[in-house]
Protein: S-(Hydroxymethyl)glutathione dehydrogenase
Amino acid sequence: MAETIGKILRPLLPETKEIKDLPNAITSDTKRDPNSTMKVLAWKGKDLLNVETMQKPLITDPKDVIIKVTSAAICGSDLHLYHEEFSGMHKGDVLGHEFAGIIEDAGSEVQLFKKGQRVVVSAVIACGYCEYCKKEQYSACDNTNTSKEMEAIMGHRCAGFFGYSHLTGGWQGGQAEYTRVPFADVNLLPIPDELTDEQVVTLSDIACTAWHGLELGEVKKGQTIAIWGCGPVGLIAIMWAKMRGVHRIIAIDNVPKRLQLAQDLGAEVLNFDENKVIPTMLEICKGGPDVCIDATGFRYAKEAIHKIERVLRLETDATSAIVEAIYLVKKFGHLSVIGDYYGTTNHFPIGALFDKGITFRAGVVCPQKYWKELLKYIQEGKVDLTKIITHIMPLEEAPKAYQLFDEKKNDCIKVILKPGTRQ
Structure:
């Protein structure tokens, strides 16, 4: 699938100007210590991971820090890479974009952080000074992704991303013992002493992504909302929605453990293996939800036609959840898409989107925009994000952890990897 994305998209695009290097961009090329090694989780090919030895990173730019990773989560979007359904993966790439740790070393121009400090690292790498960063649109940063392929495919380059292929800059991920973090003053969040890694590590990405979904949907007190997907993002969205005073939450999935947790968190649940979503929702939510949130993503095809077309590579992305949401959301309602989408889709009901006056908003999260506010809610005890964590495993068992998470075995919802201490 991944290798066909450019072939599918490029014929649809007008002829583009020559794509040149970005003059102010910083690259993922990292100095390495030839005398010191670390363990990393390396991608070796489709569905194949291995824990390997790599030279430790060194300060490469004066705005860098080196993080000794203490916790690294496996994110649902990591599975896209695991299954090689995303362009730009090279054998040996280190995965992981959700992580926390301790500052091992700091460059001479780092002003806000010091050695020995505990921090959460933003999955999205921002420079802090381009026009997008100045507007807190960090995921559109101009200076942290040198991928010409992304610009050729999508029209622009968006921000770099830790451990997320060379399409997003080729940055080493955090499922490792040590990781280099550029522009540290922008991309780090201090961890208060009284909080554990488990309480805050998801602020790297999914806790902020879930909040981003509510913001995109303009979710308000007293509303009825529906959430497609009870994975970690969807479950945290339920927590935030309850905290914000949403009147009614309907959560849609087919995994019993996830549905049970969604119910425990205060949502009504709909198992789409047992009940068809559209007729059931029309019965239990007359008039439709005020806001629909898609927290699923491109790999989750429900209808036979999408399954077939993805296998035949006639489309890259299945939009089953989005189609249902467009049909069900109130007229002039809001549809928020925070599940990952990547390429092209077929049979998209643009007419209904238009005629119903639906506000459709989507996009990658900017953790730096939200994480200070969300950290306060955690400190105040208004949410407990550890409720979604079901497995804590050593980095050495990461291949097994990916399999558990991917296949939803042993009631796995969220895995935190713990790199070992090395002398």
Notes: The domain at 210-362 is CATH 3.40.50.720 (Rossmann fold). The chain has a mean pLDDT of 93. The radius of gyration is 21 Å. DSSP finds 15 helices and 17 strands in the chain.
